[in-house]
Amino acid sequence: KRDWNINVDEILEASVHFGHKMKKWNPKMEPYIIPKCLTRSRSHLINFVKTAQYLSEACDLVFTAARCNEEFLIVGTNKKVADSVFEAAIRAQCHYVNDKWFSGLLTNWSTTKIILSKFRKLRIKEKIGGLKPRDASILKRQLRHFERALEGIKYMRRLPDFVIIIDQQKNYTALRECKILGIPTISLIDTNSDPDLAF
């Protein structure tokens, strides 16, 4: 096993140990929080030792899958993480969705493939140029519409082998589609989430 050197100090520094307020928590998260320990704002504290352990296991899984050339899709549509999702996906050379998840993106893959093909053709058309000003303006408008939804998956030719989901609550539709298709997910969840949904 590879040693990822995930330590408690780094987790504390990143503030990932702060959960949601007590009134919003999911009781299924009880094994993952520090019992009888609340912050001043009455938020739960996540057990950072368990977090480090699970992160290390997830990293091992990702590393092994990457060595086998398996395809990853990172999903994080929350505005706070959108830039981080983009940077991580570019660095790891994998697909991503960081703006909006369109329902049926994976479960209706045959349609998604057709739309992606159309998007790629429009990009080629734009690069070739030579269009009349009115046609060029229409093309730009079409591309803007496509880019918002498809920029991170424009080169995806098949369903991903793994999906990494940041914020299960926000991206529940993506998680549900993965469950329907049997695509393994790695979910980063908070105390308001259901850990049984991540598999």
From TrEMBL:
Transmembrane segments: none annotated. GO terms for biological process: translation. GO terms for molecular function: structural constituent of ribosome. Keywords: Chloroplast, Plastid, Ribonucleoprotein, Ribosomal protein. Coiled coil: none annotated. Belongs to the universal ribosomal protein uS2 family. This is Small ribosomal subunit protein uS2c. It comes from Campanula americana.
